[in-house]
Design brief:
There is one protein chain. The chain is built from 2 helices and 3 strands, in the order αβαββ. A 3-stranded antiparallel sheet has the order 1-3-2. Helix content is about 30%, strand content about 40%. With about 70 residues, it is of the alpha+beta class. The chain is elongated, with a radius of gyration of 14 Å. It has one domain.
């Protein structure tokens, strides 16, 4: 399947980002929970931007990307 730049731009425009800031173990559990979820309503969840903050918390983003179906 050939993806045109316009199609890619439309897909990227349809994303949602949710930020989390949690202690290390809680962040790991939450990320595992998100990764193990099946796609819902045609959207797949992706964990990105994992980083440690100066206060020791872990911040990460969850993107809801349109599925390929």
């Amino acid at each position: 399947m050939l993806i045109r730049p316009r199609d890619l731009a439309n897909q990227m425009a349809a994303t949602e980002e949710q930020l989390f800031g949690l202690p290390l173990e809680a962040a790991r559990c939450k990320a595992r929970e998100i990764i193990k979820q099946p796609p819902c309503h045609g959207f797949t969840s992706v964990v990105q931007k994992w980083r440690r903050l100066p206060d020791g918390q872990i911040e990460f983003a969850v993107w809801r990307l349109p599925g390929t179906d």
